[in-house]
Amino acid sequence: MIYVNQAGYYGSSVKHATLTSSSHYELLNKDGKVVKEGNVKLSFDENSGEEAGIIDFSDITETGTYYFKDAEGNKSCSFVISDDHYDEALKAALKMFYFQRCGMELEEKYAGRFKRKACHLGDAFDLLNPERKMKMHGGWHDAGDFGRYVTAAAVALGHLLYGFELEREQLSIDVNIPESGGKYPDILAECKYELDWMLLMQEEDGGVHHKATSMNFCDFIMPSDDELPVAVTPVSSLATADLAAVMALAARIYKEFDEEYAAVLKAASLKSWNWLLENPSFIFENPKEVLTGTYYDRSDADERFWAAMEIYRSEKDDKAKFIIQDTMELKVNLTALGWADVGGFASLCCLTGGEEIFGSDLYNRIKLKWMDEADRLKQLSESNAFEFTLRPREFTWGSNMVVLMNAMILCYAHELTTDASYLEAAKAQLDYIFGRNAMNLSYVTGIGENAFRNPHNRPGIADGIDDPIPGFVSGGPNYRPGDEAANMENMSDRPAMRRYADNILSYSTNEITIYWNSPLVFVLGYIKKAGGYV
Ligand code: 9MR
Ligand code: ZN
What pLDDT sits at residue 283? Predict the structure, then answer.
């Protein structure tokens, strides 16, 4: 087999595909003419369990549609060589957030055939005081379920907003949402939809509720048919710190477009910041009667660190400085960009803010850690035929997020150094996401000849439309799958890269979430900015 990036390749940049089982290949154009052929040395690849090698076809630069054939005559998926090949993917990946909107009708002119009625417009109730009703409309559904969770939301916004800071031009695209053409670029209008909901999760004293979900997951129904009451779970220091951080970040970005709104965001950030200074760690435990996702995280040191970094950037606050200094002595992961460990966002804040703000000592310590991790990832990618950055046991639930987080780290290493080898390693991670993997599958719906089709996503299942909504990233292979369709009984004899089921029942390998799409937006924006360094 020959696995390719089904979303395509830049004309003038490095182009690789992965060949398995036999060593000869032919590359053909759309008329079936062989434009290149050759032999590749194969060696064992632990993730895919296959003998695999790299086909380098960087010398083929002409715009067009191509495919490969291996020695047995197996055809690869087709792909394009073109300098705008990622445009559609970026647009779809960003539009995904609109399709996740809660509390408003998705009208046909924006949603097309995936239009749907407004959902979850009623008040929620405070779990600790059920008599108390809380306004709780808006925001994005987290995933294939309709819950809304602050820590997950903050991380998705982190990817999108730091992305916007870095790749403003590439991410300021029109994605046809109701706000298009208004005072913000669409990406900021979309993020505002989530920020406004997050503000509803904040108490007067600055404490922030962890999540707003029904007590248990509803059936596979349209969101407007879900009438389960929505419970707002207690305040957690995790959610409070994340909100303080993300509101400060957003205030900085929105200021230029809307000073009034930026002031609201900033006030919210400071309110939560003050709460953090006065309150100890309240780690979130799912109340026993609530069966939806926990987003369990045993330490809030990294969340407080992120908040301190953002607050210091805008306020030069001494208390924030102490927290930053103290946290640097702890073993906080400084490159993690997921919902549990957020130290990487603090690093991005420091590195994008620069030495003048943070001082050269802190800046350089963080830069060193960032580059260490980027070097580790680059070496890993240079050591296997998929140029991939995970080891078998790192295929966790949502492994595609880890792949995309790694790509973010590599992109920013390229930004810091302009060394093209980091960009190449980042691009190879996108190759994997778009089909250069042992499933021969693009993990983004609607993008590529053989894209996954059956995400675990309630509206996509209940809408009666055969095609999935485009632009959704799948969670991806899971070394320890645990659902009806993918589990250890039917998958433990498979290599890690194939422990995946394109099945609506497979929430542990094939769900979708906002924070699996958001790093894709970041990475696509960056790769487009670097233009494959054409
Ligand atoms: O993305 C989360 C993953 O890292 C965890 O392993 C998993 C189990 O705790 O939960 C995932 O998050 C889910 C959340 O709890 C509820 N909404 C759907 C999320 C994606 O599967
Ligand atoms: Zn809803």
Answer: 81
